[in-house]
TrEMBL record, chain A:
PANTHER family reported for this sequence: SPLICING FACTOR 3B SUBUNIT 5
Protein name: Splicing factor subunit
Highest taxon of source: Eukaryota
A Pfam family hit: SF3b10
Family, similarity comment: Belongs to the SF3B5 family.
Record GO biological process: mRNA splicing, via spliceosome
UniProtKB/TrEMBL annotation, chain B:
Record's GO cellular component terms: spliceosomal complex
This protein's name: Splicing factor 3B subunit 1
Start-end of Basic and acidic residues biased regions: 77-86, 143-178
Species per Swiss-Prot/TrEMBL record: Macleaya cordata (Five-seeded plume-poppy)
Region described as Disordered: spans on this chain: 77-105, 143-310
Lineage: Eukaryota, Viridiplantae, Streptophyta, Embryophyta, Tracheophyta
Keyword entries, A-Z: mRNA processing, mRNA splicing, Nucleus, Repeat, Spliceosome
């Protein structure tokens, strides 16, 4: 960030962005981004009742079970994180 | 506008002086604690904050804004307009003011405090026993105890001495009369009341030394001046007396023999035994005892710098105790002559010496030779002085003698003295900022061109710190900024010790200015943050320097002080804070206790009240000293004041902690307890009465048994507790207390009066206190005692009385109150009449006039007319407001009086005095609406003609008011009925538009705008064009309201005469140089386009873009941006038309082109979202997108906003697709930008992205696919 950036709205913008979990940065790797995507997706499914109902019909599960499953999947949506290569 | 203009500053200064005079008249014996001493405005803002007054400068303006609300530019634009250069000139060049100049004696006592040596950090040590050489808490407490003991002894001796004296006097006096005991008694009271001050005085008389004087001239003179031999001589006579003190070889003693630490700490005898200046006697006395290694003499390295200018020596070296200062050789006894030759004399001394020399030179008696050379040799005879002549010897009388004109010295060319060193600063090496003379003692070392290599690492560090500090203190803003950043970044590297040893003495510098203090405090704040727990040993030092900020009269200084202390307590932790401040709680100096209490309250609010409660409890119950109890209770009071309603959760415990203070043996403790209860009740209103249950009884007993100021404090507490009560209890208790209150109505004590008024106000406003009771029991006495002329003379009495009366009126109704005071409108004292008028105004404005019967109405109007006509003082607003309020409240009932009122107005419009004319015109604008209600249109027409005739007025203030009055009349009777007819009126206004006075401009443009809006057809188009040209000039106005009204007027005129001509004028104006003017023009163009439909304007506007001139093209783009902002979804019809133009602009080399075009695209996208213009928008986005790598903040902002706009119009998925290409780009710079865009996209439309995320391939152990999305039923 340059000196001129420090005090204008951009810096506040970045501060604001940093407050949201799902936002990213230049050093984000594929896995972390994918985890965010997955969690956002599950959160969205759970949040929209019609979609939830649709999935429930498709999977022949109860809506509550679907919701529970989605929430569980949010824990480790993509499995364990890969080993970080040393750098 | 933003800065106080000099006139206001002058008036404020005068008022302050007057207040001081008043205070000095009234403050004979009142208690500083109870009545707050000089700083009773503590906690109030003395001046109105200047930040927001642009927005709501006066009600008239906002009213206009409401009326003309239809077309207006966005706030950001109007705010953004840069101010003219004149304004900037007087903004940055306010005279730097020294803090000490505006401080009163009490506040100057800060200079008496000593920056105490570092203390032990108990946490850092773990279980180790502290080294003997560090100062632990126990040491400090011991010192305090010693100091206290000494003070007590001193007081005892002083008392004894006084008693002896009194006895002697009494014996003498007994011969005359027997009043001796009375006298003696009084003295004792006085002494008690002024506790520390008088005890010091007593001490002075005991020791009789200059050094011990309680500082009547604090700081400057004595404090950091070199101890010249003359001064030492002053001190010598005291030696014999001192001897008695010095027999006891306690080390603390000697140092403490002077209350002024600086004087006390003349570091005459360092353990090394180095004598450093010409005070051998003192030094001899100060031989430290071998028993304790560190005597207080060498403990105060910090203040040493300020106490002794050390020529040639690096003060740094001198600060480290035990180390022989480098320039030791130089420090041999300086002769007065030598002092002159030294570089490092304090500036004060310089000035003093020079001044003395100068004065002596001028005032020396003329010799006979000089007289001979002045007068002609012949024609004069030398007479012998009369035998009875005795020359005046007493200097005081000499000063009073009238200077005869002959005595004025003639100008003589001053003799050149090459040996003298002037204040010209030595060139500072290495790009260091200018050094002021008083900075030498702190930064003098920087001038020594020592070789950096030769210095030890520590010294190099010191030097570096000094350089940075000097840059922060005196440097240019960029220098300051980088220096501040370096200090912050390297804080831990420098270490807390070296940093604070440099910064804190600077803050004690007597010549410090506001700005410098602000900067240094900022340094401390930043450094604190970095150092964190490393500050612990320095907590007390920092507090000594920062605490005075808490009682500064400047609001922002107080806030700053609070912030620092709060950060400090978070960094150091509660235990350290308590350990550091505990010794000050029962300090003998009231000043120290006062500031400590305030600091403690800040600590409480920073770390939470519960954490501090146990400590507070212990302090408030201290058996050892009443001072501790007093301070403890005061802390509670300050907590209540500071955190307001947040005390509620802890209210009960706080009350419990202090309640026993009501029965304390010490009167001051009782008083402060009552005041603290009052503060708690005020803070917790209207809740929390349960918590006060336990104190009700002692308070009630108290008001019956106490008198004087304790009673006042108790009454205040009750006054604040009663409003918390249920209606039933409130009524009961009010009746109980009222009996005492009514008794105290007659009290001659001003402060008591104020408190009584306040309590009455509180009681009366409480629910449950019946109107009948007030009417029968309170009103008669109240009016008899308070509604007297004398009350109008003191400003605060005046205000309090008005407030209380208005509160009573809210209960008992208008008629009772107004009926009682209406006769006084004809009182012969003008201030009193004004007070009556203000009360009536407020009462009537609150409650209306329906209670007022015909007879009272007659009296009222009569009285008001009388008061209005008889006013002579400058402060005319009260009468004007009162008149306006009453007339408006009475409404149609005024009709019979209107001819009389108008007669008065007309007569006064013709008055010689400008103020009177102005006021008369103002009155018309106040009552115009009522005149309309009374159907007095003919009368208004008549007034209109009269006002029209006065348009030639030469005083701009008056002219502004006249225009305002005309506007009011036009507004109520309408364009058609207006006399003089609009077609005559407007041409008369055109030349007035040229007037540069703000008030005239504002009223005139409002009136013209009004006519353009409602009655444009009455005036020829050519006249409107003429006005258009004048209006262009007004776009330059400083006041936002004027610029806004002007821009709106353009819209109205364009509507009236068609856009072509107006537009041509405006487009031409785009070529001017001033940015502000162009900005306003673009706004006006956009408004014209909005008023007359865009298609009438766009062709001409786009055609103008072909002019190959930067300003014009930018102006066109900016107009487009505003245009699309205003027209919103209407933009869908024009988007295809302007796209080629925007394409061109977005590809332009000029940054501003792209920036402005981007913001136009933003507004366009937002306007047409969902209206099926996606094709054009995607096209434009393709032009916007390459600009994302711009670095100029304005451009990048505009681009990002355009992209946000596109997100709204095109949907998040489309933008995400643009984003994906760069999120994992190999170049970091690219990734950063793309992630930034992604993040704002994510925040804006997270949910919408779910469907659009790319499909990621699974990896070895990780599953990235989202199978749910492909489910299909």
């Amino acid at each position: 960030m340059q000196a001129s950036d420090r005090f204008n709205i951009n810096s506040q913008l970045e501060h604001l962005q940093a407050k949201y979990v799902g936002t990213g940065h230049a050093d984000l790797n594929r896995f972390e981004w994918a985890v965010n995507i997955q969690r956002d997706s599950y959160a969205s499914y759970v949040g929209h009742y019609p979609i939830l109902a649709y999935f429930a019909i498709a999977e022949n599960e109860s809506i509550g079970r679907e919701r529970y499953n989605f929430m569980q999947k949010m824990l480790l949506p993509c499995g364990l994180p890969p080993e970080r290569e040393e750098d | 506008m933003a800065t106080l203009d000099p006139e206001i500053a002058k008036t404020q200064e005068e008022r302050r002086k007057m207040e001081q005079q008043l205070a000095s008249l009234t403050s004979v014996t009142f208690d500083v604690d109870l009545y707050g001493g000089e700083n009773r405005f503590e906690g109030y803002e003395r001046s109105i904050p200047v930040t927001e007054d642009d927005e709501n400068l006066d009600p008239g303006e906002s009213e206009v804004a409401r009326k003309l609300a239809s077309y207006t530019a966005p706030k950001s634009v109007l705010k953004d307009m840069p101010r003219g250069s004149e304004e900037d000139n007087d903004m940055g060049f306010k005279k730097p003011s020294k803090i000490i100049d505006r401080e009163d004696d009490y506040r100057r006592r800060r200079l008496n405090r000593m920056i105490s040596p570092d203390r032990n950090d108990a946490f850092a040590m773990g279980d180790k026993t502290p080294d003997a050489s560090v100062r632990t808490y126990a040491d400090v407490m011991k010192e305090e105890a010693l100091k206290k003991e000494r003070e007590d002894t001193m007081r005892e001796i002083a008392k004894k001495k006084k008693e002896e004296e009194e006895k002697g006097k009494a014996v003498e006096r007994e011969k005359d009369d027997g009043s001796a005991p009375v006298q003696k008694r009084r003295n004792r009271w006085d002494q008690n009341q002024e506790a520390d001050g008088s005890s010091k005085k007593a001490k002075t008389s005991a020791t009789g030394s200059d050094w011990d004087m309680p500082d009547s001239t604090p700081g400057i003179g004595r404090w950091d001046a070199t101890p010249t031999p003359g001064r030492v001589a002053d001190a010598t006579p005291s030696v014999s007396r001192r001897n008695r003190w010095d027999e006891t070889p306690t080390p603390g003693r000697v140092a403490d023999a002077d209350a002024t630490p600086a004087a006390g700490v003349t570091p005459g005898a360092t353990p090394a035994g180095m004598t450093w200046d010409a005070t051998p006697k003192l030094a001899g006395l100060a031989t430290p005892t071998p028993k304790r290694q560190r005597s207080r003499w060498d403990e105060t390295p910090a203040s040493m710098g300020s106490a002794t200018p050390m020529p040639g020596a690096t003060p740094a070296a001198a600060y480290t105790p035990g180390v022989t200062p480098l320039g030791g050789v130089d420090l041999a006894t300086p002769t007065p002559g030598a002092i002159n030759l030294r570089g490092a004399i304090t500036p004060e001394q310089y000035n003093l010496l020079r001044w003395e020399k100068d004065i002596e030179e001028r005032n020396r008696p003329l010799t006979d030779e000089e007289l001979d050379s002045m007068f002609p040799q012949e024609g004069y005879k030398i007479l012998d002085p009369p035998a009875s002549y005795v020359p005046i010897r007493t200097p005081a009388r000499k000063l009073l003698a009238t200077p005869t004109p002959l005595g004025t010295p003639l100008y003589s060319i001053p003799e050149e003295n090459r040996g003298q060193q002037f204040d010209v600063p030595k060139e500072a090496p290495g790009g260091l900022p200018f050094m002021k003379p008083e900075d030498y003692q702190y930064f003098g070392a920087l001038l020594n061109e020592d070789d950096e290599e030769e210095l030890s690492p520590d010294e190099q560090k010191e030097r570096k710190i000094m350089k940075l500090l000097l840059k922060v203190k005196n440097g240019t803003p960029p220098q300051r900024k980088t220096a501040l950043r370096q200090l912050t970044d390297k804080a831990r590297e420098f270490g807390a010790g070296p940093l604070f040893n440099r910064i804190l003495p600077l803050l004690m510098q007597p010549t410090l200015e506001d700005q410098e203090r602000h900067l240094l405090v900022k340094v401390i704040d930043r450094v604190l943050y970095k150092l964190d727990e490393l500050v612990r040993p320095f907590v007390h030092k920092i507090l000594v320097v920062i605490e005075p900020l808490l009682i500064d009269e400047d609001y922002y200084a107080r806030v700053e002080g609070r912030e620092i202390i709060s950060n400090l307590s978070k960094a150091a932790g509660l235990a350290t804070m308590i350990a550091a401040m505990r010794p000050d709680i029962d300090n003998i100096d009231e000043y120290v206790r006062n500031t400590t209490a305030r600091a403690f309250s800040v600590v409480a609010s920073a770390l939470g009240i519960p954490a501090l409660l146990p400590f507070l409890k212990a302090v408030c119950q201290s058996k050892k000293s009443w001072q501790a109890r007093h301070t403890g209770i005061k802390i509670v009071q300050q907590i209540a004041i500071l955190i307001g309603c947040a005390v509620l959760p802890h209210l009960r415990s706080l009350v419990e902690i202090i309640e026993h203070g009501l029965n304390d043996e010490n009167q001051k403790v009782r008083t402060i307890t009552a005041l603290s209860l009052a503060a708690l009740a005020e803070a917790s209103a209207p809740y929390g009465i349960e918590s006060f249950d336990s104190v009700l009884k002692p308070l009630w007993k108290g008001i019956r048994s106490h008198r004087g100021k304790v009673l006042a404090a108790f009454l205040k507490a009750i006054g604040f507790i009663i409003p918390l009560m249920d209606a039933l209890y409130a009524s009961y208790y009010t009746k109980e207390v009222m009996f005492i209150l009514i008794r105290e109505f007659q009290s001659p004590d001003e402060e008591m009066k104020k408190i009584v008024l306040k309590v009455v106000k509180q009681c009366v406003s409480t629910e449950g206190v019946e109107a009948d009771y007030i009417r029968s029991d309170i009103l008669p006495e109240f009016f008899r005692n308070f509604w007297v002329r004398r009350m109008a003379l003191d400003r605060r009495n005046y205000r309090q009385l008005v407030e209380t009366t208005v509160e009573i009126a809210n209960k008992v109704g208008v008629a009772d109150i107004v009926g009682r005071i209406v006769e006084d409108l004809k009182d012969e004292s003008e201030p009193y009449r004004r007070m009556v008028m203000e009360t009536i105004e407020k009462v009537v404005a609150n409650l209306g006039a329906s209670d007022i019967d015909a007879r009272l109405e007659e009296l009222l109007i009569d009285g008001i007319l009388y008061a209005f006509q008889e006013q002579t003082s400058d402060d005319a607003n009260v009468m004007l407001n009162g008149f306006g309020a009453v007339v408006n409240a009475l409404g149609q009932r005024v009709k019979p009086y209107l001819p009389q009122i108008c007669g008065t107005i007309k007569w006064r419009l013709n008055n010689k005095s400008a103020k009177v004319r102005q006021q008369a015109a103002d009155l018309i604008s106040r009552i115009a609406v009522v005149m309309k209600q009374c159907q007095e249109e003919q009368l208004m027409g008549h007034l209109g003609v009269v006002l029209y005739e006065y348009l030639g007025e030469e005083y701009p203030e008056v002219l502004g008011s006249i225009l305002g009055a005309l506007k009011a009349i036009v507004n109520v009777i309408g364009m058609t009925k207006m006399t003089p007819p609009i077609k005559d009126l407007l041409p008369r206004l055109t030349p007035i538009l040229k007037n540069r006075h703000e008030k005239v401009q504002e009223n005139c443009i409002d009136l013209v705008g009004r006519i353009a809006d409602r009655g444009a057809e009455f005036v020829a188009a050519r006249e409107w064009m003429r006005i258009c040209f004048e209006l262009l000039e007004m776009l330059k106005a400083h006041k936002k309201g004027i610029r806004r009204a002007t821009v709106n007027t353009f819209g109205y005129i364009a509507k009236a005469i068609g856009p072509q001509d107006v537009l041509a004028t405006l487009l031409n104006n785009l070529k001017v140089q001033e940015r502000q003017n162009r900005v306003c023009t673009t706004v006006a163009i956009a408004i014209v386009a909005e008023t007359c439909s865009p298609f009438t304007v766009l062709p001409a506007l786009m055609n103008e873009y072909r002019v190959p001139e930067l300003n014009v093209q930018n102006g066109v783009l900016k107009s487009l941006s505003f245009l699309f902002e205003y027209i919103g979804e209407m933009g869908k019809d024009y988007i295809y038309a302007v796209t080629p133009l925007l394409e061109d602009a977005l590809m332009d080399r000029d940054l501003v082109h792209r920036q402005t075009a981007a913001s136009a695209v933003k507004h366009m996208a937002l306007g047409v979202a969902g209206l099926g213009c996606e094709d054009a928008l995607v096209h434009l986005l393709n032009y916007v997108w390459p600009n994302i790598f711009e670095t100029s903040p304005h451009v990048i902002n505009a681009v990002m906003e355009a992209i946000e706009g596109m997100r709204v119009a095109l949907g998040a998925a489309a933008i995400l697709n643009y984003c994906l290409q760069g999120l994992f780009h190999p170049a970091r710079k690219v990734r950063e930008v793309y992630w930034k865009i992604y993040n704002s996209l994510y925040i804006g439309a997270q949910d919408a992205l779910v469907a659009a995320y790319p499909v990621l391939e699974d990896e070895a152990s990780n599953v990235f696919s989202r199978p749910e999305l492909v489910m299909f039923v």
